[in-house]
Amino acid sequence: MEHKEIEIPVRVNSTDFQEFALFDTMHRQGCWKRPVVFSAILIVSACICFALNNGENQGGLLGWVLLIVGVGLPLTYFLHFFRSVRIQAKKMGLDQKRHVYTVRLTGEGVNCRPAVEDAEAVVTSWDQVAGAWRQPDAVYLYVQTDRAYILPNGQANVSDDELWAALGNDLPADRLHEKK
């Protein structure tokens, strides 16, 4: 079967990068779970302290401390995450859409050439590709478990559905993840 080469000159901005960072960190890696569980435990403990407060013990004070820590620390964690992503996008110069790399999908694998002059292409064979996640605005192609290419919709030389179908031809079904 002949393999059609697909070329995607990828242009991203800070919004694209922030959406990817949110997906990768919170959805794919599940980093939201620990702060939420921590918060839930402390909030439940605070409610128990409030319920057992009889005016003579320090249940009310302990309840307020647990509540403040249970809400404050996870809130700080999430605010720090979003702030660091915005700072990183700014450092990368993504205030406006700009060309960052060109991804070429061939029969042999994924070829990515950074937009920087004299940069060497990175080639990954299909059997080494960790997976692809289709989101409403882009496909995130993970060539390693910790390295992904953002492929925004409408930037390939084929339609978005054809791009996803081509990935389906080259990757096993267990490495394809489509948001429904």
The number of distinct β-strands equals: 8
Number of helices: 4
N/C terminus separation: 30 Å
β-sheet strand percentage:
25-35%
What does this structure look like?
- It is a single chain.
- By secondary structure, the chain is of the alpha+beta class.
- The chain has helices spanning 14-28, 33-52, 59-91, 160-170; strands at 6-12, 98-105, 109-114, 122-125, 131-134, 138-144, 147-152, 176-178.
- It has a 4-stranded antiparallel beta sheet with strand order 1-2-3-4. A 4-stranded mixed beta sheet has the order 7-6-5-8, with helices on both faces.
- A hairpin with a 2-residue loop joins strand 6 (138-144) and strand 7.
- The longest helix is centred in the middle third of the chain and has 33 residues, at 59-91.
Features:
elongated; alpha+beta; 180 residues; 8 strands
Write the layout of secondary structure elements.
Layout: E1 6-12, H1 14-28, H2 33-52, H3 59-91, E2 98-105, E3 109-114, E4 122-125, E5 131-134, E6 138-144, E7 147-152, H4 160-170, E8 176-178
Parallel strand pairs: 5-8
Antiparallel strand pairs: 1-2, 2-3, 3-4, 5-6, 6-7
Helix pairs in contact: 1-3, 2-3
What can be said about this structure in brief?
With 180 residues, the protein is an alpha+beta fold. It is built from four helices and eight strands, in the order E-H-H-H-E-E-E-E-E-E-H-E. The longest helix has 33 residues.
